[in-house]
C-alpha cells in the first residue's frame, strides 16, 4: 500500500505539488473565516439541570445578570452624594444602551447584597441581550466601551459572565505563543538538519495540517458549536506533528541516499517504511483525540474536531506533499549547509544505543528508580480538586478578576448564588412554603420568590428585585448563600435544594455556580470510563495489528499510564497548589473539570506517536533476523535522536502556551509539553529497553489464534534491508 503511494508520488511529483498548493490556498480561505464563528464557552452539559435552569430564565424571565459593574467610591462610601450621582449616571447610560435589556443598580434598589461590607463598593447588574455567541460578542464590545468611565468620585471595573473576555485573551495568547515557538523551532530545525532547505520541510507539513484543520473546523461550525480554545491545539499540534513526521521521513530519506539508493528508490522506500509508521501513528493519535467526542460539553468536542483534523492533514502532508518535495529536491535536500552545525546524517545515535545497552544489562536496577521518580511526581494527584472556569483563570491585573476578588472578599454574598426554577405554576401558598423550607437549609442567607422573601424559616422584608420572579407559568426562586460556590458545603446545599420539591408533579431545575460544578463533574465522570475504554481498546488493537504482539500494546499502555500519572501530579502541584503561581502569574484554583480529560487524550495520543516511531524500527530489524537485544539497541540508536529531537521541538510549541494569560491554557500547554518530554526520554529511553530485556523474545508473543488474525489483517510492507 505505502509502496504504491511512494510510486504514485514519484511519478507525479509536480502535479501533486500543484494540486497541494491549490488545496492549501482553499483551506486558508476557509480556515481564516472560522475565527468569527468560534465561541468562548462550552464547559457545560447542554442537557444538565443547571443549563436548563439558565435556559428557562433566559426564555421566560429575560435572563439573569451576565455582566457586572463594580463602582468604587474614591473617598467616603457609595452612599455619598458624589458617588451616588456617578452611580446613577452610569446606570442610566447602561439602561439606554440597546445591547442591554435590564439594569439593576444598588442606588435604585438599596439592596444590601449589592453593597460591599465596608460601603466603598457597589454593584450595577445588567443583562446583555442575545444567545451565548451574541451576548459574548456584545459583552466584549460593552467592556471596551465602558472601560474608561471613571469620574472624579468613582472608578469602575467590569466583570461577570460576558464581561470576562477570555476569548479575546486567547486570540492574543495564540499570537504570543506562536511568536515564541516559531523562531525557536526554526533555529532548532536548522540545528537538527544542518541545512536550510531540509529545516523548512517540516513547515510545509505544518502548513497543510494547520490550514486543513482550520478548514475542517469551519465546516463543523456550520452545524455544531465550536470553542475558540481548539485553535490552541491546532496550532501546537499542527506544527509539532509536521516536525515529527518530517524528521522521520527526511532522516529515512537521507539514510537511503547514503546507502546508495537513487532518489526515486529512496522516496519509495522512505514512504513504504517511514510512511507506514506515520500512518499508524496518525491513526492512534486521531483515535485518542476522537475519544473526547463522547463527552457532552462542546469544549472537549471542539478539541476532538481540531485534534482529529490536524492529525489527518499532517499525515496527508507527510505521505503526499513531503515525498513530492523530496523527489523534486533530491540530493539538494542537503543544500544550504549552515557552517558549524552538524546535521543528523548518521543513521545511528551512539548515546541512545549505549543507553539501551546499559539498561538491558541491568533492567531492574535502571527501571525501578525511573518508575519511583514517576510515581513521586504523580503523588499530588491524590488530593486533586475540581472547579469550573471563572474570572480567576485571568491574571490578577485583569479587571474581571478584580471584580470577582472584590465579590468574594468584600461582599456578604455573591449575587444570585443559586438559581431555582419551577417549570410549572404553583399556588402562592405552596411556593411560599417551599421558599421558607429552602431558607432553613444550612448556608442559606435569604430566599426571594414571588410569594415573598424568607430568611432562616421566617418571612423577611423583600428588597428590590432585578427581575419578576413569576412569568409564563414558571417560578424563579433566588437563593442567596454565604458559601464559596465551589466549596463542598455549597455543592451539598445545591444537592439538598434539588432534593426539595415544592409539590408532587413539579419539575425543578437548579442552576448557579455550585450546581454547574456538580453537573460538570457528572458530565465528565459519567463518561470518562467510556472514553478510557475507547482509547485503551483501540490502541491495543492498532498496536497489535502493527506489531503482531499482545505484550507490546500492554507495555505501551503501562508506559503511557505512568507518564500521565506523573504529568497530572505535576500539574496539580503547580496549578492547584500554586507552587509556580508567581512565576507564571496565575491564581491557584482547583482543577478545571475538563483539563484532565483533555490532557489525557492529547498526551496519550502523542505518546503513542513516539511509541510507534520506536517500536516500528525495532520490529523492522527484528523481522530482518536480528536478535531481540540487537534490534532494541540498534532500533533505539536509529530512532532515539529523532524521537528526542521531535519531542523537544513539539514540547516548545506546547510550552509556549505557558506565556498565556489564561491559566487553564497554561495548564494544557505545560502539561502536554511535560508529558511529551517524559515519554520521549524516561519511557522510551529506559522503560522500553528494560521491558524488552526482561521479556526477551516473548516480547513479540501472541496466542496462535491472534497470530492468524495478524497474518490476515496486520498491515506490513516487504522492504529489503539496507543497512
List descriptors:
4-stranded antiparallel beta sheet, 7-stranded antiparallel beta sheet, 2 domains, Alpha-Beta Plaits, single chain, 723 residues, alpha+beta, 62% helix, 25 helices, disordered C terminus
Entry summary:
This protein is of the alpha+beta class.
Write structural notes for this entry.
- The chain is α+β, with helices and mostly antiparallel strands.
- It folds into 2 domains: about 1-35 and about 165-385 and about 525-710, no CATH class; about 60-165, Alpha-Beta Plaits (2-Layer Sandwich), CATH 3.30.70.1320.
- The chain is about 60% helix and about 10% strand.
- It is elongated, with a radius of gyration of 29 Å.
- Mean pLDDT is about 85; it is low at about 715-723.
Reconstruct the topology from this structure:
Layout: H1 2-11, H2 13-33, H3 49-61, E1 67-73, H4 81-95, E2 100-105, H5 106-109, E3 121-128, H6 132-145, E4 154-159, H7 166-193, H8 196-199, H9 201-220, H10 230-258, H11 263-290, H12 298-329, H13 350-361, H14 363-378, E5 386-387, H15 399-410, E6 418-422, H16 428-439, E7 444-449, E8 452-455, E9 458-460, E10 470-471, E11 474-481, H17 488-499, E12 508-512, H18 513-525, H19 528-547, H20 551-576, H21 581-584, E13 591-592, H22 595-623, H23 628-655, H24 663-695, H25 704-713
Parallel strand pairs: 5-13
Antiparallel strand pairs: 1-3, 1-4, 2-3, 6-11, 6-12, 7-8, 7-11, 8-9, 10-11
Helix pairs in contact: 1-11, 1-12, 2-9, 2-12, 7-10, 7-23, 9-10, 9-12, 10-11, 10-12, 10-23, 11-12, 11-19, 11-22, 13-14, 13-23, 13-24, 14-20, 14-24, 17-18, 19-20, 19-22, 20-22, 20-24, 22-23, 22-24, 23-24
